[in-house]
Amino acid sequence: MKPMNFLDTNILLYAGSNAPEDARKKQVASAIIASVDFAISTQVVQEFIANALGKKSLGFTEAGIEAALESLRSITVFPVTYGLVLQAWRLHQRHAVSQWDATILAAALELGCHTLYSEYLNHGQDYDGVKVVNPFR
Q: What angle do CA 88, 99, 68 make, to 5 degrees?
């Protein structure tokens, strides 16, 4: 069965954050991960690693990053291909979103996901069949 939900990088980061100011978002993100069938893309995985390593305030250790990556092993991870980048370019033009956000939307569309959990796109907006839900509102 295909997942109906797609997670943006920020959901994974908040779920693992040890920053005191992220406590409420950590709780919300962890509940989403535990309760919905979801997919991610290789872009999301790469962004997760880069931010977990780069944003020291989140409190990730290399062992914590490794554990998070292992926990994602059974999740559907959609590859970023040249075709996906082209589809994202069209979404970028049509919806005036960043190329990075458009690539996440394109991966969600390719997988047939109906919901994208993210705090960075417009809550409630439908992008060609993918509705954005900001769970931190």
A: 95
HSE, side-chain direction, 13 A CA sphere, residue 25 = 19
Q: How many domains does the chain have?
A: 1
Which of 127, 135, 111 lies closest to 37 in space, CA to CA? 111
CATH number at residue 73: 3.40.50.1010
Residue 1 reports pLDDT greater than 80: no
Q: What is the pLDDT of residues 27-47, one digit of tens each?
A: 999 999 999 999 999 999 999
SS3 38: strand
- Angstrom distances, CA of residue 83 to CA of 98, 103, 116: 17, 10, 20
Q: Give the residue numbers spanning the domain of 104.
A: 5-133
Q: How far is CA 62 from CA 32, 67, 68, 79, 110, in A?
A: 24, 9, 10, 24, 31
